Amino acid sequence: MAQLDVREKLAILADAAKYDASCASSGTTRRSSAGGKGLGSTEGMGICHAYAPDGRCISLLKILLTNSCVFDCHYCINRKSSNVRRARFTAEEVVQLTLSFYRRNYIEGLFLSSGIIRSSNYTMEQIVEVARSLREDHDFRGYIHLKTIPDADPELVHQAGLHADRVSINVELPTTQGLTRLAPEKSAVRIEGAMGDMRGAIDDLSDAKKRYKSAPRFAPAGQSTQMIVGADAATDGDIVRRASTLYDRFRLRRVYYSAFSPIPHPSAVLPLQRPPLMREHRLYQSDWLMRFYDYRPDEVVAAADDATGMLPLDIDPKLAWALKFRDRFPVDVNRAPREMLLRVPGLGVKAVNSIVTARRWRQLRLSDISRLTVSVAKVRPFLIAVDWRPTLLTDRADLRSLVTPRSEQLELFAA
């Protein structure tokens, strides 16, 4: 490998990290260096932006330790047989980059992943050393997210959890068949075993923290994972079911979806074109329905096309479900239970909470609902208010065309 300076390595390894979507920084505990103790808190090139639950934008240095890899996964640009320029940071270089970027107010934390060099254990040792040095040698109190390696020794993965705010282990592909075909060196059993071990450690140390103040923090922001969408034959229904299983079994904070992107010198087994980015977006909306709108996985899957198993791209899954099950509508905003109001297209969680609170004191009109939603036209066919009843509107054959958002060409220089 040619000798590169740190700036050249940063350009290569920051670009190589762009394929990893799971770098949100929500859910961690608060730490502060106020009072002159420690460096950083949890409150450009290689910098990504994530958002905390309260809406704050958090900047993270997002890089790979190296883009060299002993594995040959067909879908990965950094695979062993790929003809890309290689680079590798030392652990100390990553530590100094993180500290330098923080002192310049560029970042508030680090997202670190890596290709596999030498062995899984060796690579995991280097990743852990970065986090250990930041925490123990430099008293760094900012956010750290580490990508862990399922094949590594469980003790090394445990050490990662002791130093990081969040850890993630990628399941890579939605189905075992897809993983076997496109990443034969990886094992779904080992991946899920590592995720199960991490869940157990998080639960154990969380319980210990409640009983003993001296118990160490362990991945307070939990664990997450990522699935590649469109590299194999998995349908949206397959992906939704897989995500639901992962949430239930491993109590993940997030499942991220990354649309497959064609890479230079691709393998012959890969599709020639990337899936529509809108497909990725619809999967995130489906994920939201399960996590915040109390939809069961089978309900979300029911919104997909029966023949293809794919969610519609022109409308969101919530609207698709409502159009498919019109017998559930319209619902009375003044009497319907909260769980049914959450299924009305155009009403979000905040709007539904406002409706439930307001109707304790008075009967709601359509004008009241219009102030809680962006598009009252989308809402009207599905609800009843004091002064509004959709009569035959809900049963119209052309209802979908009436409620589908119209595409508009944006102007480049519009005021």
TrEMBL record:
SMART domains: Elp3
Keyword annotations: Iron, Iron-sulfur, Metal-binding, S-adenosyl-L-methionine
Matching InterPro entries: Aldolase_TIM, DNA_rSAM_put, Elp3/MiaA/NifB-like_rSAM, Endo/Exo/Phosphatase_dom_1, rSAM, rSAM_sf, RuvA_2-like
Keyword Iron-sulfur attached: yes
Elp3/MiaA/NifB-like radical SAM core domain residues: 59-286
Keyword Iron: yes
Cofactor section: [4Fe-4S] cluster
UniProt GO molecular function: catalytic activity; iron-sulfur cluster binding; metal ion binding
Cross-referenced NCBIfam families: rSAM_link_UDG
Protein name: Putative DNA modification/repair radical SAM protein
Organism listed in the record: Stakelama marina
